[in-house]
Amino acid sequence: MRLAIISLTLLLGGCASTFDSESPAVDEYTLNTTSNRAESAATAPTSVPIQLMQIEAAPGYDTRRILVTHPDGRVDVLADARWVGSIPRLLEVATLDQLRAAGFDAHPNSAALVSPYSLRITIRRFDAEYATSGDPGRAAAPTARVVLDVTLIRRRDRLPMATWVVSGAAVATENRRAMIVSALGSATSSALTGLVNELSAVTALKQ
């Protein structure tokens, strides 16, 4: 019996090694954004801490896959490519960076602090959209689109103070994976600039 178990272990180990050697390589990409301080508020109107709630995602967007949409509405993915983390997690990091760059005292949901405000974000779109049908490899470069629902919540009574939608779009310079990923980063930057500007206006009115 012991010999049989050893033989089975060696067999399974050999199979695993074979599968690994035949698995295609997957390239991982980071979400690179830039803080456009010329368009966003130079300083936040309030230094009160704001806690960013765990970012939610519409169905299909809580994934590490890099998504593309075809003119008929069909959703596809870039082959052999993925993000280094899930889309909500990448957006959380980018949002905190953008808020802090604008002067907000922003903290992640995991931070142990008492904050009067919470910021809730839901991802509605985070994909690259092709305008024409046909072979994706020969199609014109797609447009990256990011759409976010945003709500500022007063924590003492959990009432929403303001709700708005921000979006960003950027055309990829080429129909290649690296260029599509770069366009998604630019579209994210544009959407987050709109988020910061609106948040600045809302918090200024609430003082």
Task: Walk me through the structure.
The structure is a single chain. By secondary structure, this protein is α/β, with parallel strands linked by helices. The protein has one domain (28-205): Rossmann fold. Helix content is 31%, strand content 30%. The protein has three helices and nine strands. It has helices spanning 2-22, 87-101, 177-205, and strands spanning 27-29, 50-52, 56-57, 65-69, 75-83, 106-108, 117-129, 143-154, 159-171. Strands 1, 2, 3, 4, 5, 6, 7, 8 and 9 form a nine-stranded mixed β-sheet that branches. A hairpin with a 4-residue loop joins strand 8 (143-154) and strand 9 (159-171). Helix 2 (87-101) crosses helix 3. The longest helix has 29 residues, at 177-205. The termini are far apart. Mean pLDDT is 83; it is low at 1-22 and 36-42.
